[in-house]
Amino acid sequence: MPVQDPLEQEKEKLQKIIAEVKEGVIIVDPEQKITLMNKSAEEITGHGLVEALGKPIWHVLTLLYNEKEVKPDTYCPVSSIKLEGIVYEKDNLTLVDKKEEIKVVNLKVQKMKDGMEMGVGCILTIEDTFAQSELERMKLDFVAMSVHVLRTPLSILKGYLSYLTKKETLQKLNETEADYLKNSVVSTDELVYLVDNLLDLTELQASGFRISPIPLDLDKAVQSVVYEFKPFADAKMLEIIYAPSLSELPLVYADATRLKIVLRNLIGNAIKFTNEGSVEIIVAQESSDFLKVTVKDTGRGIPEKNLPHLFKKFYRVKEALEMETGRGLGLYVSKEIVGSHGGKIGVESKEGVGSTFWFTIPVYKERK
Predict the structure, then answer these.
(1) Where is each PAS domain found (predicted)?
(2) CB under 8 Å to 142, separation ≥6 — which residues?
């Protein structure tokens, strides 16, 4: 049985590896000639492996950036020095494929340790941004459709449960039955809250987190959200405090719908995680360019180690998971909305004392 050339063995291994990669992968030798391509690279460039094999990389890749050609020596440098790691990385390059169709791609080029000995000059990874954005759009569409389908039966269920929890109905139940019913209401409210946040997130992502700001009275926006949450605070015997600023505040420049999402998330969380005491909302002038909204509670507080992660997508504190549904998507959505306005969001908290969440929103300035 003939012994296979070690280089051929390595080549076969590489071929199997890159075949499983979803991005386009092209491997060239130290002289920039193509030795391997996967199926994705064939689809992106329009060139098949058989015709491209042994050809210079420029035969397959025509790349432009700001309408200027990107030469192979730029992204795949030929050097006697043993380079290793990423040697070139650029997003939003223009690629002209075999049919002379234009595509926008992200390109990353790496050199392997001991690649020269294996006959490997560069490994090029090409991502078709349109294909990737289409996949993301399909995911968003699926999530949005699923969430909309869930919203209607949940709203109906919430309506039925609200009817059943009326005082005259609860009086007919024993203590265990009443507790079961109350827990069902809480769980349904949590599901509705999660579904609403998923809807907010899918709408934001679908729009590219674009906003439609208008001159807005922040005081009125806060008052309307406080009014919405007063029954929830009353049910927990919490004091909800909002005293408008004594000095006249300027209008803010904000998307009214998105701003209320942030206010609902912060005020709703404060009430949810506070069992006694109060929730206080303060609006003040942060600077000549920004107003600051602060939501302060006397709740259980958040461990210091968790604070840096609170605004990450799907992050929830371990203690919240153990006791009740956590903040979930709400804070992530809030961070994205505030950021899209050019503002900042933050938190200070101490376990057993309470939490203070705040965000800034830009002041409206008339164009002269």
Answers:
(1) 10-67
(2) none
